[in-house]
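Sample intake sheet
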Amino acid sequence: MGIHHTHSHAPPRGSSRVLLAAVGITAGYALVEAIGGWLSGSLALLADAGHMVSDAMALGLAAGAAIVAQRPATTSHTFGLGRVEVVAATFNAFFLLGVVAAVAWAAIGRLQNPVPVSGGTVLLIASAGLVINVVVAWMLSRGVQSLNVRAAFLHVLGDLLGSVAALVSGAVILLTGWTPIDPLLSLFICALIVVSCIRLLREALHVVMEAVPRDLELEEVGRAMAAVDGVREVHDLHIWQVASGSVMLTAHLIIDSYRDWDRTHLAVREVLERNFDITHVTLQPEALTK
C-alpha cells in the first residue's frame, strides 16, 4: 500500500527573494555607516552600523530559513520544515538582544566619559541610512508575514530607529554641541528594541508550544462545528500551528449515522475554511447508529 502526502505545510513562497535583496542593501550600507561613524566619532552611528551588520547576518539567516522551509514533507518530517522559520526568528531575537546589550554598555561608558562628535558628518550619513532602512522595511512589510520575516523586519525597524536616533543626535550636536544626546538616544532605541524582541519571543514560544493561534478561539470553532447539520457533539478538539499561517485541526465528531458522513464531513470542512481559514483538517467520526 502506497503512502501519499498531499498536503503542503510550507510557508508561502516569495519571502526568500525579498530577504536576499534586503541582505545586499543592508550589508552595503553598513560599511558606509561604519566608516562614517569612525571618522565622526559618533557612537550612535557606529552602533547603527554594527546593528546593520547584525541585520545583514540575521536577514541572511532568515532567507536561508525561508528557502529550507519550502522543502517538501518527507517520511521523517511529515509536516515539512516550515518550523525552521520559527527557529530562525527565535535565534534572531536573541542575537539582537546581544547587540542591544553591547550598544547599551558602550552608551553608558560614553555618558561617563564623553568624546567629541562631528555633528555634520553624523547628520549626513544618518539621513542616507534612514532612506535605506525605510526602503528595506517597506520591502519586508509587503512580503509574506511569517514569524521569520517579522523577526527580520524587527531587525530593520531597529536600524530605522537607530538612523532616526543618529539623525537627531547629529542635529542636536551640530546646533548645540551637547554630546550626551548621542548615547542617550542610543539607550532609548535599545529599550524599544528589547520590548519588541520580548514580544516576538513570546509569539515564537506560542508556536513551539503548539498553542491555539491567538486569532482563534477553541470554543468558538467547536460551536461552529457542532452547529453543522448531522453533528451531535465535538470532542477531543485540537488546534495548533506548525508554522506561521499553517494551522492544523483534529477532532472527534459524534454523528447520527455513518450513512451521511461524507456530506457531514464536507459541510464541516467548508465551515472551517470559510469562517476560520483552517484547511488542514482531520476528523474522526463516531456514529450513534450504523
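Comment: Residues 40 and 121 are 6 Å apart (CA to CA). The helical segments are 15-40, 43-69, 84-112, 119-141, 147-176, 181-208, 218-226, 261-276.
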